[in-house]
Amino acid sequence: MSTEQQRQLPLDLRLRDTSRFAGFYPGGNRLARDAVEALAVGSAMTAPQILLHGPAGVGKTHLLQAACHQTYERGEPVAYLPLAELATAPPLAVLDGLERARLLALDDLDAVIGRAGWDEALFGLLNRLRDSGCRVLLAALAAPDGLASPLPDLTSRLAWGPVFRMQAPEEDDLKRILAQRAALRGLELPETVADYLVRHYRRDLVALLQLLDRLDLAALAEQRRLTIPFIRDQLARF
Predict the structure, then answer these.
(1) Which of residues 148, 165, 182 is at a domain's end?
(2) pLDDT of residue 11
(3) Is the dihedral of CA 188, 190, 195, 196 positive or negative?
(4) On the CB side of 72, how many CA atoms lie within 13 Å of its CA?
C-alpha cells in the first residue's frame, strides 16, 4: 500500500476538532491520559493496547479522538470507529482491513458485544492487529469481564493491555473544564458564571459542554457576554 493510500485511510474519521489532549482536563484521570498520549506517539514504554471504561461523560471518547488527531498529524494512518453507530452493520464489513492502520480506536464496545457475529469478528481483528503491530485504543462502559461476552477468548483479548477505569469529574473539575473549553473558543467565562452553570444545570459533562456551545452561539447572535442574567434568560428559553 502506498503512502498516499495510507494517508487516505482516515478520511471518514469525523473527529471533533475540540477533542485534543490540550483540551482535556485530567482530574482523576491523569494516568489514563498520559498512557493514551504515550500510545498515540508510539512510545516504546507503552503497551500497544489500552482499554478505557466508565460511564458516559468521563472523557473516553475525547481521549480516543485526541489520540487519533495526534497520530494522524504525525503522518500515520489511523481509524476511529463509533461502534454504537455501526452496530446494525455486518461486523466483517465494518472491521475488514483495519489492521492497515497504525492506530485504531474502537469506541462504544458495549454496543456490539453479544450481537450476532460481533464477538468472533472482534476476536479475529484483535489478533490481526497484534500481528500487524497496530496500536489499539478501546472504550466501553464496563471493564472486559463486565461486558459479558459469550466468547471468553475475546474477554481475554480485551484485557491484553492496561485497563483504566475513568473517574467522573468532581464539581470543581467541571468548572475548570468549562473554563478551559470556553477559553479554547475565545470566550470569557468568569468563575461565578461557571459556578452558576454547574449548580443550576445537570452535573453531566456532556450536557454542560453542549450547553456551553449553545450559549456561545446565542451570545454571538445577541452580541452579549456570558453573564448570569444572560444565562438565566437563555435557560428559560431552552
Answers:
(1) 165
(2) 39
(3) negative
(4) 22
